């Protein structure tokens, strides 16, 4: 079995797809298993290939990268999506994170930054340019949500999600079933008024920043 991180590239520019494929060679721990030229293809290929990480352009014809990411995450809440875009606009960044993607990287980034972002997203960790961090913190600012209505087990699951653990890893740590983990996460999201796993991670980031 291959230990390579399996990548799906979604970008409407052939030269970008070719360039990324050239950079992402097996010796760097990743392999490209598919290329999509628009959002609709990305949705179909994500379902068919089940990649470990999806590199998604923000602006594409037919269906935008953001809408495609939203659809993919509806089908698979554990999908790891890294937005790779030319737009460093705060509103676009916040919209992407709120949609549930795990990472946001500008196309003028260095290859080393791309590899680091891919591995971070693969591990379930949020990754984004430092200069956009303030936008994320501002977007997360809201009246503190009381967590006293979470059970002890839900608190344990919440902390594990914040560490970037997958459902399988959480199940192994807590010695419970994967379906039970999914149920706990759904309950936590409902109790905290959140929509997806990424918003949960952002919530935990904001909580830790509070005095």
Annotate the secondary structure layout.
Elements: E1 5-10, H1 14-23, E2 30-36, H2 39-49, E3 53-56, H3 65-75, E4 81-85, H4 90-99, E5 103-106, H5 111-122, H6 133-140, H7 152-162, H8 167-174, H9 178-192, H10 197-209
Parallel strand pairs: 1-2, 1-3, 3-4, 4-5
Helix pairs in contact: 2-3, 7-9, 7-10, 8-9
What this model shows, in words?
Strand 1 (5-10), helix 1 (14-23) and strand 2 form a beta-alpha-beta unit. This protein has ten helices and five strands, in the order βαβαβαβαβαααααα. Helices cover 52% and strands 12% of the residues. The protein is of the alpha/beta class. The chain has a five-stranded parallel β-sheet, with helices on both faces. It has two domains: 5-135, Response regulator (Rossmann fold, 3-Layer(aba) Sandwich), CATH 3.40.50.2300; 140-209, Arc Repressor Mutant, subunit A, CATH 1.10.10.10.
Helix and strand run: EHEHEHEHEHHHHHH
What would the CATH topology of the largest domain be?
Rossmann fold
- Poorly predicted sequence stretches spanning 5 or more consecutive residues: none
Query: What would you call the shape?
Result: globular
Q: Which class best fits the helix and strand makeup? A: alpha/beta
For the biggest sheet, the summary is:
5 strands, parallel
Number of strands: 5
Quaternary status of these chains? single chain
The CATH H-level homologous superfamily of the largest domain: Response regulator
The helix content, as a percent range, equals 40-55%
State the end-to-end distance: 46 Å
**How many separate domains?**
2
